[in-house]
Amino acid sequence: MSSSSSTTLPRFAFLTPRVLPPASKLEGRVAVLDVAFASEGGGASFERTTLPFINGLGGRLAAWVDHHDHDRHADYLGDPRFVLTTKAEHGACPELVTPEVVRAAGPVDTVGMHLDLDGLYSGAKWVLGGIEPYEGADADARAVDTRRGEPGPIATRIDRALRARFRDETLKHRVLQYLVARAKSPVLWSEIEEAAREIDPLLEESKRLAESFQIIDGVAYVESAGRPYDKTELLLIGQERSPVAVVRDSGALTIAADFESGLDFVKMFDLGGGMPTRVTVPEARRAEVMSKLAAAAASHARPSGGVV
């Protein structure tokens, strides 16, 4: 099966760094895209989660392309199958999926990808042989993944649809099919539009929750109330009020700052890997988290005196 064929699609698998399936569940040769090496904490780690998956795939691993920071990237510097960078070097993964990378990997049977817009755009671009599904798709993915700049209308609607139905694998397949069709399928687009409209009540709930933000030692902090909401929106609202926003939800703390803030929560909390400006840590570390963030927020605010 050719990875560059737009008529015969490979199998798709939606992966998350902390919960990877047994390698035996993925058929044939596999390309893994936009899936970070697992960070420490929450029961996952590189040694317990990522490494067994890599070893399980063995020679069937055709490529691993990712742009999230991780200390263990150094282990694979000599392996041409691994195209690994930092978030600062590449704000989104699709720009790493080039025709050269796809050709070097050879035919694949399964494309495994992260389940957000960045991951799906990477998967579609792989199927298309490293060519953007539409002009500006790479820039759109970067804008969405970094929350810097304005994505175009296609990515804006797909992002809203995925955030509204983040557990819906059927929708993810529809998005992939739409992108592989080079954004020229009205039927698929109508399904995406329908899903995108469902985010409105989630955004409203995020705005309601945002009224409860407290500024604690320069950090915007809020606790979820158990009703469905959009966490990305809530974090962005928090960042309008402070350089750092924290949302407590389901026994965990999600911490976020502007992509260009210069803050690195991966190093700050010794997580080993992940996105430097958005991480999740167990709620049990709350005292440590708030103390370190207070110091970082104070230091970060001094040069400009403003909010990121």
Polypeptide structure, described:
With 308 residues, the chain is α/β, with parallel strands linked by helices. It contains 11 helices and 12 strands. The protein has a 5-stranded parallel β-sheet with strand order 1-6-2-3-5, with helices on one face. Strand 8 (219-223), helix 9 (231-241) and strand 9 form a beta-alpha-beta unit. The longest helix has 16 residues, at 286-301. It is globular, with a radius of gyration of 19 Å. The relative contact order is 0.12.
- Structural class assignment: alpha/beta
Strand order of the largest sheet: 1-6-2-3-5
Overall shape: it is globular
> Main sheet?
5 strands, parallel
Rg for CA atoms: 19 Å
Q: Tally the helices: what do you get? A: 11
Q: What portion of the residues fall into strands of 2 or more residues? A: 15-25%
Uncertain parts = 1-6, 302-308
Number of strands: 12
Helix content: 25-40%
SSE string:
EEHEEEHEHHHHHHEEHEEHEEH
Distance between the termini: 47 Å
User: What's the pLDDT, averaged over the residues?
Assistant: 93
Would you kindly provide a brief summary of this structure?
With 308 residues, this protein is α/β, with parallel strands linked by helices. The chain has helices at residues 46-57, 99-105, 117-127, 137-146, 153-164, 169-180, 186-197, 200-210, 231-241, 265-268, 286-301; strands at residues 11-15, 30-33, 61-66, 69-70, 82-84, 110-114, 214-216, 219-223, 244-249, 252-257, 273-274, 278-282.
